[in-house]
Amino acid sequence: MRILVLFLTQLVLWTLLAQLNHYLAPLHVSLFAGGLYIAFAALRHSLRSALAVAILGGMLCDAGSPPVWFGSHSVLIMHTLLFCLATAVVIRGRDRLLAGDTVTCALVALLANLAFYLAFSVPALLRVPEPSAALGRLAVDLFCSEAFILLAGPWFFALQNRALALARTEAPTLN
Asked: Which of 38, 47, 136, 165 has its CB surrounded by the most CB atoms within 10 Å?
């Protein structure tokens, strides 16, 4: 039940981001908040639950990826693989963090989002004939995405917490 509840909150985030990106398109700005999909579950839930949430969130993000040729930035499961890898890294180091703290969740989301953004952007830059021309746009998108995480992260973590409370799921177990 916990996994379904967290997935439904991810669906809310995905819809919100799709709408924001639609409205920002005339400004040539795009938001990506992949770090928000994994931070809460990776810091507060068991490995099994966190990976299940990462897989579902990654598949949700992959569903919105544009179809591209094989071997490029999206091979239909790129978000899913990166979300699972980041979840495993966070779970591995969460005993050194204040897992219940909103600030810690936001910092983990920011760092994970930066890693995702670089993982998607660097290979794309290598295929562009003039990479320096795209750097400015990528920097603006990264800045706006990180600012979105700082602003929306606490709201999203509270939404996840409240949704779990409303669903009356048992307290998370960390292992």
From this structure: 38
Contact 73, 123 (CB under 8 A): yes
Distance in angstroms (rounded) separating the CA atoms of residues 69 and 81: 18
Task: List CB contacts of 91: < 8 A, sequence separation 6 or more.
Answer: 42, 47, 50
Distance from C-alpha of 18 to C-alpha of 32, rounded to nearest angstrom: 10
> Within the chain, which residues score under 70 in pLDDT?
65-76, 170-175
What's the first-to-final CA gap in the chain, in angstroms? 18
Whole-angstrom Cα distance, residue 16 to residue 148?
11
Assign 76 to helix, strand or coil.
coil
Answer for the pair 79, 63: CB distance below 8 angstroms, yes or no.
no
Buried-state track 95-134, b at ≥16 Cβ within 10 A, e below 16: eeeebeeeeebbbbbbbbbbbbbebbbeeeeeeeeeeeee
Q: If you search the block for the tokens 């699972």, which residue do you land on?
A: 84
Q: Which residues contact 96 (CB under 8 A, 6 or more apart)?
A: none
